[in-house]
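Single-chain item
Fold in token form
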Amino acid sequence: MGKGLRKSPGLSWIDLNGKVYSFCASDKTHLCSSIIYEVLGSLSRELKESPCFDSMAWDFCVVCV
């Protein structure tokens, strides 16, 4: 970003069985982060190879790989 501005990292929450988990973009603090990002990378490659893949929509997706 220009002019010394920084974008805040994306943050998401999910509630599983009454427990809330939070996720921050590019967070590597989880013990299994290398496996998590490996799986995300694999899923994103599969999606890009899908016949239903819309490259225009992909440009608006944020995938942390």
Summary: Helices lie at 33-49, 55-58. Residues 31-51+58-65 form one domain.
